[in-house]
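Input chain follows. Return structure tokens only.
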Amino acid sequence: MNVGDLVRAMEAIAPARFAASWDNVGLLVGDEASPLKSVLLTIDCTPEVLNEARGGRVSAVVSYHPPIFTGQKRFVAGSVAHDAARAGIALHSPHTALDVATGGTNDVLADVLAMTARAPLRPLAPVETAVKLVTFVPSEHVAAVSHAMFAAGAGRIGRYSSCGFRAAGTGTFFGEAGARPAVGDAGKFEECAEVRFETLVPVARIGDVLQALRATHPYEEAAFDLVRLASAPAAQGMGRVGAIQTTGVASIIAALKRALSLDHVLVAGPVDRDVSCVAVCAGSGGDLVGEAIAAGAELFVTGELRHHDVLRATAAGLTAICTLHSASERVALVALEQRLSATLPGVTVTRSRVDQEPLVFA
């Protein structure tokens, strides 16, 4: 096994395409060709965690929060990135990609509440991955044109390739001065038996497919349309909202303390009530308060909220529970340890013993 195997395993668990545009995820320090014998999981790669990794001769650290977040111009002794590289320890971060992913940070937090049917609080914005290309070809040339387009990357739907649609019709044109029509004559109104051919083209292959179309189409000017397609609603997104068995807020607080190994949580809003629709957002949940309210949630569990977000939530009738930021995320490392251990046979995967929430109740 090498570090590249870890990168591929993490990509399967938390695809980087799910990460927020402002985030910094993936392999941040290291060489994919380096041997991989052990992996240490942590929420934050602090100097203490890095010392633990060096002492245990760990090959790579998967740090949920990116140890390199904003642009940096210097990597000097004492910085986590420099010291990890000097020690030959790779650093990988999934962060918001793991928040979005199925079975990731937010699903684990939802599991603590025994949330059943669930959906993202904020679905990912649809990404345009393909367009529909429509062209018109004389019937005797449609096979050659379509096959050339398929070879260039068009026509794939799931596990099927060479997918297209044909419909017969009549094309018309008038070749003006200087035109050299492949069918009929210039200076005359012409009608031609044509086939309307449609196929899907990945956005990344549009140039190649159009080149193939023009190279094989018999007309001097090949007519075609590129049609943008509406994306289906995203199944992934930030946060979770869903139903639970009707439960008292006090019982939910007790369950959170047990699962997250906490002595205290912060609570705002009504506590003496039963709830059946809850929302969660691991980490900082202020940006999703509006979505939780709109979704009809009665209780919102998150790591932290700003003061005015708390007031907004409680004014809408929500009970808000804050566990502190990283305390809401750390439980996800248990599931991540199990998944990586199953994916990377022969590699030792463990959780940091010194990683902890920096804030404590005094």
